[in-house]
Write a structure and sequence with these properties.
Strand content: 25-35%
Strand order of the largest sheet: 5-6-1-2-3-4-7
Helix content: under 10%
Number of helices: 1
Shape: globular
Structural class: mainly beta
Largest sheet: 7 strands, mixed
Number of strands: 7
Order of helices and strands: HEEEEEEE
Length: 136
């Protein structure tokens, strides 16, 4: 938007220190803020816990329950729930394809940790079947 002086009105967007973008709606949609891979990894690492579940949205599947197994500066390793009980799909996704947000409609489940409303939500810009599989 141009003001009367002909210059753009640039609004500074502040990002929380932990890098997680909170959303007020329950769809998990985060406003489009560009995060570096380092910021994404910093936001994902606290969720590396086999007792905690996160939500993942792919291009062809939404609201998939997953566990974060590991996270490096370049990739995140996920374990996705499937329709078959006790069988999970493992895979690694490059962080350049991941958008990080928070699902405020959920809460943490590990009883050893304090209750916290809001769980990690990852939006991955590829179909679920295209995720690089670590399973043989």
């Amino acid at each position: 938007m141009m003001n009367a002086g002909g210059s753009k009105d640039d609004k500074a967007v502040e990002r929380p220190a932990d890098g997680v973008v909170e959303t007020n709606d329950f769809s998990g949609e985060a406003p489009p803020l560009a995060m570096s891979s380092r910021e994404k990894a910093r936001a994902i690492r606290p969720w590396v816990d086999p007792e905690e579940r996160i939500r993942v949205d792919f291009e062809d599947a939404v609201n998939v329950t997953a566990i974060v197994r590991a996270c490096t500066e370049d990739t995140v390793e996920l374990e996705l729930e499937t329709a078959v009980p006790h069988h999970r799909q493992r895979g690694t996704v490059p962080l350049r394809l991941v958008e990080v947000g928070e699902d405020r409609g959920r809460y943490t489940r590990n009883p050893e940790k304090p209750l916290r409303y809001g769980v990690l939500r990852l939006s991955i810009r590829q179909p679920r079947v295209a995720m690089v599989s670590d399973n043989p």
